[in-house]
Amino acid sequence: GQQLNQSPQSMFIQEGEDVSMNCTSSSIFNTWLWYKQDPGEGPVLLIALYKAGELTSNGRLTAQFGITRKDSFLNISASIPSDVGIYFCAGQFWGAQKLVFGQGTRLTINP
Amino acid sequence: NAGVTQTPKFQVLKTGQSMTLQCAQDMNHEYMSWYRQDPGMGLRLIHYSVGAGITDQGEVPNGYNVSRSTTEDFPLRLLSAAPSQTSVYFCASSFRGLSGTGELFFGEGSRLTVL
């Protein structure tokens, strides 16, 4: 089936550092989304992107929809302990009633 | 407001047993879905429903059945559990399908172990 390649798979950083992760696909998506999963919880939507080239921010989070429609990245600035968790990218094809998720990036922060 | 409620949170089964994972939402969402989460695999769609009486298969439907008799409930049935079905299962809903924002509201998950 369709796959999204998300990298890195895990990150170990110091509090205060900036974080960058990305997703790539061989397929063209109409929508890119970024979710975060806290330990023991279900994923929660962080940012949704609808247009190629779109750059969207949500507080310290910034995400971009790649020009080719085949990639997206998420940046987190000045990381804090509550940023710990698993971050998932997800893509949606035009008109499809399903999302394709990446493998996830597990973020660990050393205080 | 409860949101998406999944039961049970934990379950241990023996190979060949059957069980139902329950999912209920109180947000009047038309769209509901089931995902499984496995290490290194992300979230994979099992089945989904765009409204009461309508269901469709996702990426990994084999070994699972669903039905949608009401807007609120979307149970997932394992007919004959296998060790490969050991996973964390998430139910997720959306107000009007994924044609809008693509935002899914997830439950807290059900951790299933099949021995």
List descriptors.
heterodimer; A: 111 residues; mainly beta; six-stranded mixed sheet; five-stranded antiparallel sheet; 11 strands; B: 115 residues; four-stranded antiparallel sheet; 0% helix
Report on the architecture of this protein.
- The complex is a heterodimer of chains A (111) and B (115).
- Chain A has no helices and eleven strands.
- Chain A is mainly β and 111 residues long.
- In chain A, the strands form two sheets. In chain A, strands 2, 4, 5, 9, 10 and 11 form a six-stranded mixed β-sheet that branches. In chain A, strands 1-3-8-7-6 form a five-stranded antiparallel β-sheet, with no helix packed on it.
- In chain A, a hairpin with a 5-residue loop joins β7 and β8.
- In chain B, β4 and β5 form a beta hairpin.
- In chain B, the strands form two sheets. In chain B, strands 2, 4, 5, 6, 9, 10 and 11 form a seven-stranded mixed β-sheet that branches. Chain B has a four-stranded antiparallel β-sheet with strand order 1-3-8-7, with no helix packed on it.
- Chain B is mostly beta strands and 115 residues long.
- The model of chain B has no long low-confidence stretch (mean pLDDT 93).
How many strands, what sense, and barrel or not for the largest sheet of chain A?
6 strands, mixed
Our Rg estimate of chain A from Cα atoms comes to 13 Å
Largest sheet geometry of chain B: 7 strands, mixed
The overall strand count of chain A is: 11
Biggest interface and which pair forms it? Answer: A-B, 26 and 28 residues
Count of β-strands of chain B: 11
Strand content of chain B: over 45%
Brief sketch in words of this structure:
The complex is a heterodimer of chains A (111) and B (115). Chain A is mainly β and 111 residues long.
List the helices and strands and how they pair.
The complex is a heterodimer of chains A (111) and B (115).
Chain A: E1 5-7, E2 10-14, E3 19-24, E4 31-37, E5 44-49, E6 55-58, E7 61-65, E8 71-76, E9 85-92, E10 100-101, E11 105-110
Parallel strand pairs in A: 2-11
Antiparallel strand pairs in A: 1-3, 3-8, 4-5, 4-9, 6-7, 7-8, 9-10, 9-11
Chain B: E1 4-7, E2 10-13, E3 19-25, E4 31-38, E5 42-51, E6 54-57, E7 64-66, E8 76-78, E9 87-98, E10 105-106, E11 110-114
Parallel strand pairs in B: 2-11
Antiparallel strand pairs in B: 1-3, 3-8, 4-5, 4-9, 5-6, 7-8, 9-10, 9-11
